[in-house]
Amino acid sequence: MRLVIAAPHGRSGKSTITLGIIGALQAQKGLKVQPFKKGPDFIDPSWLTWMAGRPCRNLDSFFLAPEQIQAVFDRACMSADIAIVEGAMGLYDGMDVEGSDSTAAIARTISAPIILVVDATRMTRSAAALVKGFQDFEAGTNIAGVILNKVARPRHENILRQSIEKYAGIPVLGAVPKQNNLVIADRHLGLITTQEKNGLEDLKTCLAEAAGQYIDLDALLVIAGKCPDLPRLTTSPVKTASARVRIGVIKDKIFSFYYPENLEALKDSGGELVMIDSLQDKKLPMIEALYIGGGFPEVFARQLQENHSLRADIRRCINMGLPVYAESGGLMYLSRHLIVGDNTYEMVGALPCDTKMSSRPKGHGYSQRKVICSNYLFPENAVIRGHEFHYSQIVNADPGSLASIMEVQRGHGMDGKQDGLIYHNVIAAYQHIYAPSYPEWATNLTARAAAFKENLCRISG
To answer: What is the pTM of this model?
Structure first.
């Protein structure tokens, strides 16, 4: 069973509706729900993971071919009763005029029916025209039901229901009234992360109860159960290598942007992952490599600065040759200083540059880099796809002390032309990589960690 929850446009409420449906299917129907998010986002998946209790997976046709998407989908759904996919932006929105990477395209790839969430604010009969237009816009797109959101009163709901069912012929499966307690706060990169939200259990209960009360769960399950079988893919089972190196991962309320597939790829290639808290831990544990993902160091810059001992230990280990891979927020953390408004905060100081926050995005969207300089992670001329979303930029770099290993083919990177700083054994980029699209990343990082470990043993011996 599977469903895609989509909307005509962003800010329609599909995230809260999706979370509520997942919670209600678990609490009221006793189902194991596997969540997915269309697109490269990190923050929405963290909320879907929180609600479902299973790692949310990203489905993205910029990263993967259709058969690879089906494989990711199929593997993640093992032991689950139903899959719920949250769309992104509007149903047909994508990178090009054909919408080749849209939520609708993903729904067709996995043969899933679509439930359209319609923000009914200041609209009655016109909602039917909107739904009818979405229904007829692109052949092969199966809009199987509508959920109305932000409904004002019973009369409003009745007109909406009757109009949509009469003119579009699509059942209205729910009508959620306006409720202030169903809103999740956001900031410049989107929703806040689950690590920062207080009262999560109350919110979980509230979302699930609202969905159970206002949405016809039985009708949803009937629609989800009518999906055709996906082709069985003959893929070799993933074999996890025995752990041979310890890879530190700074993962906490600041640095939380990690694809689960990236962490799994490191484990599959022989890495034992050691989680590190950038605020609580005073020194690095015994590790042979370090991975620092993206996040919000600018929001917690003062707290990061106050943890002097961890910053000093990271800097010491980098000077000893510790392999480090850092993305976006991780790059900012490794710089000398982070400038936020009129305030300047000390960071690790491993990279001879500063980073400065801007009021507007410097890079936002899918990205593509061509490797122009051979290094231990990527061979020369390799093309790496990913995404970026950052408000910071590199400033005050020491001339001649930093080298770039990537040429920007799509996106912004550091300055619209280059990305991927390399310094000692540190590689830091604004681009976030998705391991299944370039699996050599994990095996190469693990191999470098093994070489570092061997060298340490040789020196100590």
So the answer is: 0.90
Domain boundary (192, 224, 256) is at 224
Tell me the two tokens of residue 67.
């058969």
Nearest to 434 by CA among 444, 442, 426: 442
Is 432 inside any structural domain? Answer: yes
From the DSSP assignment, how many helices (H) and strands (E) are in the chain? Answer: 13, 25
Of 331, 318, 322, 290, whose CA–CA distance to 419 is shortest? 331
Percent of the chain with pLDDT over 90: 84
In a domain, 238, yes or no: no
CA 239, chain centre distance (Å): 25
Q: Identify the bridge partners of residue 367 per DSSP, sorted by sequence position.
A: 386
Amino acid at residue number 442: A
pLDDT bucket at 403, cuts 50 / 70 / 90: confident
Triad 446, 329, 375: Cα angle to 5°: 40
Burial of 271 (0-12, 13-18, 19+ CB in 10 A): buried
Which residue, 224, 254, 285, sits at the end of a domain? Answer: 224
Positive or negative: CA dihedral 180, 182, 185, 191: negative
Same domain, 202 and 331: no
pLDDT of residue 54: 95
Q: Does residue 60 share a domain with residue 198?
A: yes
pLDDT tens digit sequence for 337-347: 999 999 999 99
- Quote the CA–CA distance of 269 and 244 in Å, as a whole number: 9
Condensed to tens digits (0 to 9), the pLDDT of residues 413-448 reads 999 999 999 998 999 999 999 999 999 999 999 999
Q: Which two tokens stand for residue 70?
A: 């089906």
- The parent domain of residue 145 ranges over 2-224
CATH number at residue 369: 3.40.50.880
